[in-house]
Amino acid sequence: MTILRFILFSAFPVILFGQDKSTILSVRPHYGFIIKHSGKLSGLTDTKPFGIEINTTWQLMDETSWQYCYCYPRVGLTFNYSNFANPEILGSSFALFPYVEPQINGGEKISGFIKFGIGPVFLSNVFDSVYNPQNKFFSTHISFIVQMALGLHFRINEKINLRFTGDFNHISNGGIKNPNLGINYPTLGFGAEYVLNPLPYLERNKDKNIRLVPYNQRFDFLAFGTGKTAVKGQERYPVMGFTALYSYVFGRQQGVSAAIEYTFDYADREEIRKLSLNDNLPVKDHKYLAINAGHELLLGKFNFYQQLGYYLYSPFKRRDRLYQRYGLKLPHKIN
Q1: Can you spell out the DSSP letters for 14-41?
Q2: Were both Cys, which of 82, 193, 208, 258 would link to 51 (CB 3.0–4.6 Å)?
């Protein structure tokens, strides 16, 4: 997640001082529902989240941006407020994050877009073993949100557009503290946007000799590590592991991937130790083996990925067998 914030914010000086860009302000209310993705969430997914989103956007109109995606992409900042309609347990979220938004048929009266964003979110009501034990979604006030959206623009005139979106939102703390089942909530939104300085839409030639991804397939071996607390207590324990991943590229910026992952979770080991002492249960293994597969959006050196995974080996039953993952990585070649 740090990488995505870096790449998006590092582009802002170019955006702010470049000439070939339009500045756009937009606002939209949104309304949705919570997905029950675990049996541990019984009674927590019956409410309908609602809120408002405000965007400050720059549409890049230069030749380089056009050749990158054969469109004039947008980048910007989103402020997103979501009320989960359950103030005693779930509260609300307040997020501010950067995003990228490739356009589809951008010069037409009705055009489409795809939006990808990720960044920090503040959660007003989180898990507490005494005061809020029912909240299994999140346990830290500062977490991260991933937003993916599809939408349509309806041009009213050169300065005003209507904006219809369908979003998928995921909030999680990345596993640094339990419980952390994460909340998934799709929403629909309808709003308007105002273009401060409209620029003409120029149809440019598509230079298909430009190769955006310099490989057809790729093998990666990744090591990872973080820290998290057990369900009860504040002491942090390491979580580390290894991933072997294969990716295959299709189209200009798309890929599919498959991976196998082995994890050592020492926070779970501490939880297992406590359970075995308190309940006289056998000591289970704190290691996990999983497979996952998914889609990759390849933005230069950066890889925004979404994966669905399954634990082949998971003797400690606190984890659901099926899980999802979102992220962004920057490959590093070792010479």
Answers
A1: HHHH-SSEEEEEEEEEEEE-----SGGG
A2: 82
